[in-house]
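Appendix C reproduces, verbatim, an entry submitted by the partner laboratory led by Prof. M.T., so that reviewers can inspect both the input and the predicted structure.
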Amino acid sequence: MQQREKHRLFFFTGLLASAILYSAYNLYVLDPYVYADMARGTRHLYKFGSIIIAWLIGFAAFRKTAPAWLLHLWNILYAASLAILLLLAACDALIANPSAPSTKP
């Protein structure tokens, strides 16, 4: 197989894997009935897992086909995005459930 065909194969395999991940996430996790019954910690775990899987798909696709600088950029952008999302999840865990004020007269 020629080098160009291998690059196309990796690209389209990564694209297909991303589409499958996105579809499964939207069909299962974001289903209104499942989402409403799911605990917040479980939702965070699914979101974190899907982000890590998406990074792995991109890393596997870019590793063979892209220049080194693009792979570094991919890793830096994903690490920064993941850090922001973890910070938001920590804020959500700390301040999202304040105790309800007392309604006693």
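The radius of gyration is 19 Å. Additional entries are available on request from the coordinating office.
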